[in-house]
Amino acid sequence: xxxxxxLPALPSSPAxxxxxxxxxxxxxxxxxxxxxxxxxxEFLPPGATWLPAPPHTLPTLPGQPPMVGYLVLIxxxxxxxxQTSLPVPPLPDEAExxxxxxxxxxxxQLNGAELDLTYLEFELLAHLVAHPxxxxxxxxxxxxxxxxxxxxxxxxVDVHIAxxxxxxxxxxxxxxxxxxxxxxxxxxxxxx
Length: 192
Fold this sequence. Notes:
alpha+beta, 3 helices, disordered N terminus
């Protein structure tokens, strides 16, 4: 059984509490002043790095200042990855996903058959499948899939979406929907 203990409290906050949680990793939480600078390196697992999250990936709350977030990059062979992922609840039998993405093997399957995808087609499909029913602008997709250094326009995204739709076939091509004047969204096809 692990004990989750907060970091030393700020002078204006109450003393830290010890809360026993079975089989939980140790977390460090405490309030931070607006002007306080935190050295986060001590909180990262060995070999991990961090960088600021792109602003378009963070949620916004009406009437609140913008949120700041960070991406923590952990090496694939790190033992810290085994306990950090959240369990995914199983889908009911009638909602079995037809598109499956294996990011470790870098394969995509449609109804059990492997799709022959280029590197960018795989990255684009994996991103859309990871965020179902969410509308993505062309600029967001270029930034996320192609990266910051990509020089191009939204037409590049349109061409790759058209190729993905052809590879999904007539029956499932509508899983990637066009949202006029905005971008695209992925609506998962399900077995019937």
